Amino acid sequence: MFTSDRSLNALVEAGVLQQQVSLANYTTWRVGGPAQWLAEPNDAEQCLSLLQWAQAEGLTSRVIGAGSNLLIADAGLPGLTLCLRRLQGSQLDAESGQVKALAGEPLPTLARRAAKLGLHG
Predict the structure, then answer these.
(1) Most buried of 6, 55, 81, 90 (most Cβ within 10 A)?
(2) May I ask the CATH class of domain 5-83?
(3) Which H helix or E strand runs over 18?
(4) 120 with 98: CB under 8 angstroms?
(5) Are 66 and 103 within 8 A, CB to CB?
(6) Helix, strand, coil content of the chain in percent (nearest 5)
(7) Does this model's pTM top 0.70?
(8) Bridge partners of 102?
(9) Residue-wise pLDDT tens for the chain (121 aa)?
(10) pLDDT digits (tens, 9 = 90+) for 97-117
């Protein structure tokens, strides 16, 4: 959790957390009003800290990915909107068939990598 306003300010200064951001650039339809707070965490630790901060502040939280199949009202969204598109990466094991992917990993990228390893199903 944020131990001080300094931690929160550091995320704001780094561009991880922003106020009143138009969500039109976060949907494939290019429509949508502003998020009261928009966060794009770089790792799972930031994600957890942001969710804990929102809970402590009494803010509603929602999670979005890359914005496919997502419509947002022109009025926007209150609370914290957590966009996971920066959380990319995957591990594929051809021998076991096990695939682990972070929430922001693009599905076409993951599918191509799996196909190259002969994974299917």
Answers:
(1) 81
(2) alpha beta
(3) strand 17-22
(4) no
(5) no
(6) 30, 25, 45
(7) yes
(8) none
(9) 555 677 888 889 999 999 999 999 999 999 999 999 999 999 999 999 999 999 999 999 999 998 888 999 999 999 999 999 999 999 999 999 999 999 999 999 999 999 999 998 8
(10) 999 999 999 999 999 999 999
Distance CA 47, CA 15 (A): 14
Domain boundaries, the chain: 5-83, 88-121
pLDDT for position 120: 87
- Give residue 118's identity as a one-letter amino acid code: G
Using the structure block, give the residue that is written with the tokens 């969500």. Answer: 23
CA atoms of 27 and 95, how far apart (whole Å): 37
Q: For 13, what's the count of Cα atoms within 13 Å in the CB-facing half-sphere?
A: 6
Residue with tokens 């914005």: 67
Closest to 107 in 3D by CA, of 88, 121, 84, 120? 88
Q: Which two tokens stand for residue 104?
A: 């922001």
Q: Which two tokens stand for residue 81?
A: 């909107």
